[in-house]
Amino acid sequence: MLYHVSFIFKLRPEDYTGFFERLDALGRWVQPFDGCVLVSTALTAEGLRAKLLPYLGELDKLVISKMFRGQCAGRLPGRYKTFIKGAISRDPSAPEQPS
User: Fold this and answer.
1) Within 13 Å, how many C-alpha atoms sit on residue 87's CB side?
2) At what angle do helices 17-26 and 45-52 cross, to 10 degrees?
3) The model scores a pTM over 0.85
4) How far apart, in whole angstroms, are the C-alpha atoms of residue 34 and residue 14?
5) Per-residue pLDDT reduced to its tens digit, 56-73
6) What is the predicted pLDDT for the residue at 99?
7) Strands 36-40 and 28-33: what pairing?
8) How far apart are CA 21 and CA 79, in angstroms?
9) 40-43 — which CB contacts under 8 Å span 24+ positions?
């Protein structure tokens, strides 16, 4: 499953080393720009949040959204597109495609 994780850190960047080390332990991820990581993990959004919250301060912000094929759009360099294509799930609300 692929998640878009947006965050705003209020402390110094070096105070968040644990956040990124935890991401390393949870699955594959890329950071296409500041304040955003795309995470491929078997966890649910709530499970991912529970694993990351201990590394955030009280003033920090965090939003986690599951990404589905055909339900998200953007403009990123090729290496990020490759990561997304390899990790994104089929939209469960979309009709099955004939084989």
Assistant:
1) 21
2) 140
3) yes
4) 14
5) 999 999 999 999 999 999
6) 63
7) antiparallel
8) 22
9) 40/1, 40/2, 40/3, 40/83, 40/86, 40/87, 41/1, 41/3, 42/1, 43/1
